[in-house]
Design brief:
Chain lengths: ~110, ~120
């Protein structure tokens, strides 16, 4: 059931600012990483992914950075808009026999103020 | 992108009854689908991997006799919560990999289960 007292990290920004959301992953064998956006009452929506042989990948208004040395992943959103307000999750896949299985991070609540 | 649907989107049931949730890949075939559970203000937790034509693989701590998974075709997996209890109330989400097309998983919209 729900863990009492559990709070997701939060990030509040002004519209137009850049946002950086961080994630620490646990499995050094993970070779594929994804960022998802989840709006209230909906399923996760794919934002961007990156493989372990890369350290940076850019999309439209979003950039993902991967630091395998410290097992850290970040999502940068440029010119954040109110519609970007949601919970953001990183996910990792270890590949191999775990192909397709994703382990999700705890999530960060992003609130964009007009 | 590929679309995954779930039915129903929400369900309320009495304690002790069973509830079936469907997950469909609408425009692609998926040999493998995944079922997740998400409690309020928490992350998604993988429950099981659903394999077309074979038994599901359950994650540690998930009761296979309580959460029955059937993947009878390449576009449909079902999750049945048997003898539901209030603590089973949660948001259940499925996802699917398109056969032969990389790692990307496509998620369904989720099913909100409330057990009274």
């Amino acid at each position: 059931g729900e863990s009492v007292g559990l709070h997701l990290p939060t990030l509040s920004v002004q519209e137009g600012d850049n946002s950086i959301i961080n994630c620490a992953y646990s499995n050094s064998a993970s070779d594929y990483f994804i960022w998802y956006k989840q709006e209230s009452g909906k399923g996760p929506q794919f934002i961007i992914d990156i493989r372990s042989n890369m350290d940076k990948r850019q999309g439209q208004r979003v950039t993902v950075l991967l630091n395998k040395t410290v097992k850290h992943l970040s999502l940068q959103i440029a010119a954040t808009q109110p519609g970007d307000s949601a919970v953001y999750f990183c996910a990792e896949n270890a590949g191999g026999t775990s192909y397709g299985k994703l382990t999700f991070g705890q999530g960060t609540i992003l609130t964009v103020h007009p | 992108g590929a679309v995954v649907s779930q039915h129903p989107s929400w369900v309320i049931c009495k304690s002790g009854t069973s509830v079936k949730i469907e997950c469909r890949s609408l425009d692609f075939q998926a040999t493998t689908m995944f079922w997740y559970r998400q409690f309020p203000k928490q992350s998604l937790m993988l429950m099981a991997t659903s394999n077309e034509g074979s038994k599901a693989t359950y994650e540690q701590g998930v009761e296979k006799d309580k959460f029955l998974i059937n993947h009878a075709s390449l576009t449909l997996s079902t999750l049945t919560v048997t003898s539901a209890h209030p603590e089973d109330s949660s948001f259940y989400i499925c996802s699917a990999n398109e056969n032969g097309v990389g790692n990307e998983q496509f998620f369904g919209p989720g099913t909100r289960l409330t057990v009274l």
